[in-house]
Amino acid sequence: MLRLRRAPAPGPGGAGGAAAAAMGLLNFTRDPVPEAVSGDMHNLNQLSAQQFSALTEILFRFLIEPKEQVERFLTQLSDFATMNKISLGPLKNIVKSILLVPNGALKRNLSSEQVRADFIALGLSEEKASYFAEQWKVNSPTLTRLAVGQTLMINQLVDMEWKFGVTAGSSELEKVGSIFLQLKLVIKKGSQMENVYIELTLPQFYSFLHEMERVKTSLESFS
Amino acid sequence: QLVSALHNLTRHVVYRGLTRAEDILSLFPENFHQNLKNLLTKIILENISAWRNEAQASQISLPRLLDMDWRVDIKTSSDSISRMAVPTCLLQLKIQEDVALCGNSPVVSALTVELSKETLDTMLEGLGRIRDQLSAVANK
Lengths: 223, 140
What we know:
The structure holds 2 protein chains of 2 kinds.
Chain A: H1 13-22, H2 36-46, H3 49-64, H4 70-83, H5 88-107, H6 112-122, H7 126-149, E1 156-167, E2 178-189, E3 192-200, H8 202-222
Antiparallel strand pairs in A: 1-2, 2-3
Chain B: H1 2-16, H2 21-25, H3 34-57, E1 64-75, E2 86-96, H4 99-102, E3 108-115, H5 117-139
Antiparallel strand pairs in B: 1-2, 2-3
């Protein structure tokens, strides 16, 4: 059976979205949604518009910088809970439920219409769903870029340092006078950095440079 | 004793970088057999550049680059985004460990490194600067 992932999107999102919602099919996920979610959405509806927009802001700020800011996110959540006299536990559950949608939407490159439709399907009020969808539209380029940046890289080259000089002499040759180039490559292996030192002769350097320029041309033709 | 003496002679010639027959001839003692002296000098002169090159090749050094290969991939999907088209470069460097340490059985390792387009651009900038510095030194 055809999933209504790209519902009649060109038209007003409302019609297509409502159709998808009515059929109980969601854009952001194929799996059944946990039971708790509709209860959480109901609770969300109880918040005032101002509270909802403050909460949304906290959420998006977290999404944009998740790795470093988990502590800050949790602090902001508990501040929000205290300020609005909500208990932190239920708030965390609500937040977990809300985050399901943007995570799925990011993965599937959903439009803001589809995000809005999904929230409505889950039980959120139209007003709040539209607001969230707007925020999604504003933030999705940054979020997409972040997700692409987090894609798996094998032995990623992180940094390169170099020095070159002249070999003056050695234990076998009193006077040498040959040029050497030393490269230090910093490579990320898993979560650790490894330094690799290589020495190149001049001709090797020039052909290396030539090859790298060919790679750049190749990469550019694919962007 | 003979071999050792010959060895010392040739090493000295290579070390000093003597390239003229007179310099080599002057190393022999006064009453050395004339023809033998000339023959030895001739042989040494013939081999001197080969010996110098070999000495240079087996100098101690950091691991040396032997060869490099590359390929460009397009990443189409991942666990965080199901559809994308991101080009990336895989670079394989064949590196030979310090020749002086390995003697006759050099250890060659292959290192594969991945570069994003941004990293490649930065790297090319760095390599360009090296090239400029090299030509500045060459022109001095």
